[in-house]
Design a protein that fits this description.
about 270 residues; alpha+beta; 3 helices; 16 strands; disordered C terminus
Length: about 270
């Protein structure tokens, strides 16, 4: 391999590497020493949160998951488990994504009773370090004996029948993903649910003209079960926060890498001529 090839290959690898989104936080409950209520990781709040080995439910990945509940965990001052996703951020990173795997169990006795359900919020922080806005998935059993899901910006801390639009057809792991992006200078948030095979089950986009990226919106805040009501408990796995750098950051880093390659090339030429 000649020097020119080495420079080109090294520069391409550097440019490619710096453009990858970075996982800022991940919790898959695999660590045998994991316990709840450790800042800034998962907190039980007024629920219970237990590390569980694969058994009647197989973990979404690895050999362990966590269980919220069982029982009714109401809203207000008695709310479900939450995580600060490694710590709140007041700086807009260029975009970020939160995701959590949740096992929806259609055989839970609460489904037939019309009580099974939960709300999961992923919130944006403000540049003032205060809460900016919630983006909430709603899951609930209706009186038809089926489980439905939807999304909004508010939690009623109980089954939100008016927000439920899409039926869950089978028990299993589902990934609840929230993508925070900059669209024309305004925060735009895609709330999507994928089945274990990666197929899209549900998606919707929410935004407000008040959420101005330049002056208002920071980074992540929490992921929070504002309420949970199950008979058998709610299995969760793979809580992840991924940050996506600004496109301008990509450009600057790419130009820096290419510039470095040119400098090295010129030095090699100079050395050869000497």
């Amino acid at each position: 391999m000649n020097n020119r090839t080495r420079i080109l290959l090294g520069t391409c690898l550097l440019v490619g590497a710096i453009q990858l989104p970075a996982q800022v936080y991940t919790q898959g409950f695999e660590d045998p020493g994991w316990v709840p209520n450790t800042y800034p990781d998962w907190n039980e709040y007024s629920s219970t949160l237990t590390r569980v080995a694969s058994g009647s439910i197989t973990a979404a990945s690895g050999g362990y998951y966590a269980q919220v509940g069982p029982g009714l965990i109401e809203g207000g001052t008695d709310s479900g488990a939450f995580t600060r996703l490694g710590g709140y951020s007041s700086t807009w990173p260029g975009g970020f994504t939160t995701s959590l795997d949740i096992f929806i169990d259609l055989t839970d006795a609460g489904v037939a009773a019309g009580t099974y359900g939960f709300d999961l919020s992923s919130a944006a922080n403000g540049q003032d370090a205060l809460h900016q806005r919630d983006f909430i998935f709603h899951v609930g059993a209706l009186n038809d004996g089926n489980v439905w899901l939807g999304a909004s910006n508010n939690s009623s801390f109980e089954i939100n029948s008016g927000a439920l639009t899409t039926q869950i057809m089978s028990s299993g792991w589902y990934t609840f993903q929230t993508d925070f992006t900059d669209v024309g200078g305004i925060l735009s948030v895609d709330l999507s649910v994928f089945d274990s095979g990666g197929s899209t089950v549900f998606t919707t986009t929410r935004s407000s003209a008040e959420d101005i990226i330049a002056t208002e919106v920071g980074g992540n805040r929490y992921m929070w079960f504002t309420y949970v009501d199950t008979v058998d408990g709610l299995a969760i796995d793979n809580a992840i926060l991924t940050a996506v750098p600004e496109p301008s950051t990509y450009a600057l880093l790419s130009f820096a890498a290419l510039g470095l390659g040119l400098v090295i090339r010129r030095r090699l030429r100079s050395h050869k001529s000497d």
